[in-house]
What we know:
Largest sheet: 5 strands, mixed
Structural class: alpha+beta
Number of helices: 8
CATH architecture of the largest domain: 2-Layer Sandwich
CATH topology of the largest domain: Ribosomal Protein S5, domain 2
Helix content: 25-40%
Order of helices and strands: HHEEHHEEEEHEEEHHEEHE
Distance between the termini: 90 Å
CATH class of the largest domain: Alpha Beta
Strand content: 15-25%
Amino acid sequence: MLDLFYNTPARRKFLRTEKTEFGHIDEVVRRIALSRFDVSINLTHNGKRVRQYRAAKETHQHHRRLSAICGNHFVDQAMQLTWEHGDLAIKGWVEHPLAPVQSSEIQYCYVNGRMMRDRLINHAIRQAYEGYLQGEQQPSYVLYLTVDPHQVDVNVHPAKHEVRFHESRLVHDFIYQAVLSVLRQVTEDTLSLDEEDNGALTATTFPENRQVAGEKCFFAALSSTSNLIYAKKEHGSLPRKCRKRVNRYAKESPKNARYTSVW
């Protein structure tokens, strides 16, 4: 592609520096490369090869391309997501909520293979991460959403970066639940491992339960013979009001009623 705007000076004035414009082109190529793992893509600039993404079919090859585009840090911290419900399906990778660094630059979402920057999708993902991130941290993700083509309108934005879902609330809740389920699962696994590692230490730090103040008596029928159970504390005698209740229940109970101390 050479001299794209050579005969359109009216548009040339809107272009920035060569470095900036090439950065935009590079980002578009990155988006395309993440949407089609099965296609080899080469990017050259001033006669030099800048990017080369080989076609990927196997899982490890997918991770290799993902690492080349998003970086090794994202791949090391990424959690794979797969979620389906009816005509909706979502898959991809989200970054671990406890990762030391989150980057808003790694936020790629595709709807039926088309790159999107939709506010509804971003809101659902941010809401799922709520409580896991602090301050200005942003979640990093690469997600692929599949929707019935008849349930989505892609002609609502000049650059086709936004879509309109006919059942927007359903799609929002679906994405939210899918991401949240993965985050909860991984955090619960992390906490359980920490508890196992520190189990001996935490077990010795808990104080013994102190004896509850006051006195209680309990009554319960064991069977049809109306066997009466009463219990009293090991120290001290049974309170007077409890003795009266025991005597009253004893008179009403059959002659073969027996009394058993629980303690």
